[in-house]
Write the structure tokens for this entry.
Amino acid sequence: MTAEAKPPPDAPPGEPDLFTPNAEPMPSERLRRVDGDKGVSLAERVTAGLHRLSYRTALHRIRLRGRFPLKLLAVPVDPLAGDVAAGERILRGRLVFAGHNAPARTIHFADAQVPAAWRDWAHSFVWLRDLATAAPDRRTGAAVAEPLVARWLADHHDFDAAAWRPDLVALRLMFWTAYAPYILSSPDLVYRSAVLNALARWARHLDRAIDRVEGPRRVTAAAGLIVAALIIPGVDARLTRAEALLDHALAAVVLPDGGTADRSPATQLDLLELLLFVQSVYAARGRKPIAAVLAGFERLVPALKSIVMGDGGVGAWHGSGAARPARIEAAMARSGIMPRPSRSTSFAGYQRLAAGKTLIVVDAAPPPQARAAAAAHAGTLALELSDGATRLIVNCGGGTAAAPLPPALAAALRTTSAHSTLVLADSNSTRIRPDGALGKGVEEVVVNRQESEEGIWLDLAHDGYVRRFGVRHRRRLFLSASGGDLRGEDLIEPAPGRRLRRRGAKATFDVRFHLDPGVEVTPTADGQAALLRLTDGRVWQVRARGGPLTVDESVWIDHDGVPRTTRQLVIAGTTSAAGEASINWSFKRAGR
């Protein structure tokens, strides 16, 4: 890793030209971030707090009374498999999640000291899927699940702000009904009545609380209300309302091209799996799902497919962890939609460049609104690249609920420096406020794309540094038709119509390319190039002009949410007195 190598003899000498595209120009896209830094207002937070207080009153408890269900109308089939290893841990009496290991025999669901991620996971009962996967014999699983359900009911029979959050109530409705054989096998009629009564009370509570949530949580709440209306006797009158709520919630969260408002692939996958569950519930009652469910498949699957890398996983975009490829493949296959991946998703803002074995995905849109995404990243114009099933260029990633990261590391992963793009003056292209929300920065991204038999050209620019420095970042890419030659140019240009600010003159900058942990790096003696050897033996040649190329330490968050040490290529430079700079670079595959 530390040995130096001579520049490859067939490396292109000098600056890798980005020649004028020999193709018909396509219309430019201007993607804007409207009210991007406006989060949840103080009035909204106060109103939400007052409603939570109202749920603790005797009046609300009276509202939860109603018909006492004696049985479920059907038991839906969970369309997805769980994690066998996680299920086996539960069978051994340990509920392990988010770094917390709770013994089943003495578990206290109301413990305020446990991690919030573990508490949400425990209250949702999604872990019943893992338990059932590890214990297909329901008697074995019921021996573990029923005592846990009884303990939960003892702790949370009445409203609790954490346990009765609308999306968690919805998930309990889904998983308690789907895994009814695991929690309703007991001959104890008092226990069985308590479980069935709890399901009915949650449905009534959810019907009132759903109007106080928005975003993906509102979609989950609406899905839970549909499950209740289809499965629990006496709740069927709410079905029409629940279906309308799901339709409207999906329209607000899922964009016309299948991207989501928070621009997170993790949200796309979660919503796809949620709709698969809802479809299964309709099937359990012998009914066809509403059009919104099928339309959701038709939008979500092609969009998700478009950002899947060569190894079947997705990149680290806006809080998404590196989801396991098998999970993504299973969800898309279950949907029945078999799309061709689109070249670009103009609403979600990801551009896809594919040629030969090479696949590149670029974040080509402003970050999402602050109120739409609590964990979004400041990585505009970052790219990820895979060669066949092997990752080459990555972004550092994001944590997962199953394996939360130290706060300092989680915050660092959201910065521009944690992404494979240009960083000016060690500043984020979009500010990250002290409360964690994204502030001002990138408001507009201009996209020009052209294609011909020679390859694909992409010309991008963002205004994230205009307010503070008076300059914009422009990134130009060319991918050859064979996929073996990627050329790029990162430019810093004075913003049209804006006065250059003092900080924009003679400002330092870095162009960063974070590498997959499996990539071995050997820098050349002249400080302008490097050889990258992939795990399968293939080699890529990297060259840079406009600044020295160095190799630094980096980190990548793997599929299990565990940080792994890796390396990054850094090309450093300084803007001119006029606030201008240009860095040229190329990645060329050696051989086939």
Notes: Residues 29-36+344-590 form a domain with the Beta-galactosidase; Chain A, domain 5 fold (CATH 2.70.98.70). The mean pLDDT is 87. Residues 102 and 544 are 52 Å apart (CA to CA). The chain is about 30% helix and 20% strand.
